[in-house]
Structures are given as C-alpha cells and as structure tokens.
Amino acid sequence: MHFVTFATAAILSFALGGVNAQSPAWGQCGGQGWSGPTTCVSGYTCTYNNTYHSQCLPETTSTITTSTPISTVAPTSTSPSSATTTSSGATPTGSQIRAVQDPVFHFYLQNNGGKPQLGPEASSGYFTVSGTISLNQSSGSKLYLNVNTSASTSYKPLTLDATATTTDWGLEGDTIITTAPRQLNFIACATSNPSFYDLYLQTGNDTPSGASCTLQTIHLPCLC
Ligand SMILES: *[C@@H]1O[C@H](CO)[C@@H](O)[C@H](O)[C@H]1NC(C)=O
Ligand SMILES: *[C@@H]1O[C@H](CO)[C@@H](O)[C@H](O)[C@H]1NC(C)=O
Ligand SMILES: *[C@@H]1O[C@H](CO)[C@@H](O)[C@H](O)[C@H]1NC(C)=O
C-alpha cells in the first residue's frame, strides 16, 4: 500500500515541481543532502526516518494530537525565491527556538551552564535572530550562538560566546538555517540528564560515539 501511495506522491511532486513549497503526502521532507521542502502539506508531519530520509507521514500518531499542525509555515516565506533569506517581517526578537520531532518534541534552546542545549520550556532562551542569533544576559551583554566549524567531524558543536563568529544564521519560514552554505539539519543527542540534549549542526553522517542522537530541524514557534 505504501508503495502505491508513495508512487502517487512522487508523481504529484514531479507534476507540481517548484510550485509546491511543501512536501506532499508521503513525500521526502528532510535528510542529508535534501534541498527540497522541509514542511508537509496539512494533515502530514515531517517524520525522521534515518540520516538520509525524513518523510511526510499522516498526523495520526499519538505523539502529535494538537489541532494546529506544528510545521505549518506561511507560504510566502518558503517560496523558492526567498529560500535563503531572512523572513521579510520584523527581526524576530525574544523568540524561542524549539525542536518539533521526538524525542525532543517541544524542547527549547537555552543556555544551560554556558552550553546551548535543548531543554524544558520553563527555562527557554529568548533569542534575536538576525544574521547572528543572540541571547541577552542579565548583565546587559549578549551571548552569540556559534557553530564550531573547526570540528573535524561532520557534526559541528554549537557554542555560546561573547562574540559572533557565525553570522549567516537565517530563517526559512519558521526554520532556523545557515545560509552560506544553506544547512538546516541538526542532531540532538541525549545527555546524562534526560531533560537536556546537546545540539549539533549536522553536515554529514558522523554522530558522537556512544550517544543516542536524532536528526532534527529547529524552529521558531511562530513567524513573529
Ligand atoms: C526508512 O528507511 C529505510 C532504509 O532506507 C527504508 O527501508 C524504510 O522504508 C524507510 N521508512 C519509511 C517510513 O520511509
Ligand atoms: C535584548 O536587549 C536589547 C537591548 O540591548 C533589546 O532591544 C532586545 O529586545 C532584547 N532582547 C530580548 C530577547 O530580550
Ligand atoms: C572548536 O573545535 C576545535 C576542534 O575540536 C576545538 O579545538 C576548539 O576548542 C573548539 N572551539 C570552541 C570555541 O569550542
């Protein structure tokens, strides 16, 4: 049955080509090297399968029962012409950043003892996304979210530093990306504390040895 529906989806996706900014039912919506849409048509949710493949599956599983589709984005901001630009509205200020797939569904990016990690909403960070991603500190200074591109592994650690070295952060719809080059895959890796996950930008298929990691994209909760 899946083969039939998948074939239909493939034909649909072929027929609609670049017009469709969202992946069709059963269509691919992520994975290493994937440059197509990362959100799904209404009623379907982008579900991680493996490093190479995420697929739009019906929202019938018990994990997602909210009435609002979590990955719906404004059509204008996912159109190919604006694919690598920051959304045209006001600079998001005071925005939470969260994951939307298990096992970190609605875990929020935050400063946990100097490390950027995904954790509980109660301690969520509120970020300003504008080329840099910054976090206000109570002292009045800022911390900047950087990708450590010196890492020799395909997964690049994220750090919070006093100066910004990663200045190509952007938004594609509600999805946090880097724009040069365009990258939107992250991995979330379990830590000894079940409330917190380490987050890495994933540019290949290495994973930290011994860690349980899942491919993730990270999002603003709303286009605000
Ligand atoms: C997940 O990937 C495996 C290996 O590529 C494949 O056999 C399987 O059909 C995929 N599952 C889904 C739901 O796409
Ligand atoms: C951070 O501080 C700046 C002023 O330095 C302010 O304009 C901005 O709204 C603050 N952002 C957040 C998320 O509180
Ligand atoms: C970045 O990664 C390199 C190589 O692993 C390491 O030596 C360096 O300390 C890291 N820098 C930061 C800021 O974490």
Report on this model:
The protein is mostly beta strands and 224 residues long. 8% of the residues lie in helices and 35% in strands. The protein contains two helices and 17 strands. It has helices at residues 2-16, 75-78, and strands at residues 28-30, 44-50, 53-58, 98-99, 108-112, 115-119, 127-130, 132-136, 142-147, 155-161, 169-172, 175-179, 182-183, 186-190, 197-202, 213-216, 218-219. The strands form four sheets. Strands 5, 6, 7, 8, 9, 10, 14, 15 and 16 form a nine-stranded antiparallel β-sheet that branches. The protein has a three-stranded antiparallel β-sheet with strand order 1-3-2, with no helix packed on it. The protein has a three-stranded antiparallel β-sheet with strand order 11-12-13, with no helix packed on it. The protein is globular, with a radius of gyration of 17 Å. 38% of the residues are buried. One 2-acetamido-2-deoxy-beta-D-glucopyranose (NAG) binds next to strand 2 and strand 3.
SSE blueprint:
Layout: H1 2-16, E1 28-30, E2 44-50, E3 53-58, H2 75-78, E4 98-99, E5 108-112, E6 115-119, E7 127-130, E8 132-136, E9 142-147, E10 155-161, E11 169-172, E12 175-179, E13 182-183, E14 186-190, E15 197-202, E16 213-216, E17 218-219
Antiparallel strand pairs: 1-3, 2-3, 4-17, 5-6, 6-15, 7-8, 8-9, 9-10, 10-15, 11-12, 12-13, 14-15, 14-16
The structure holds 2-acetamido-2-deoxy-beta-D-glucopyranose (3 copies).
Region (Disordered): 67-95
Signal peptide: 1-21
Protein name: Carbohydrate-binding module family 1 protein
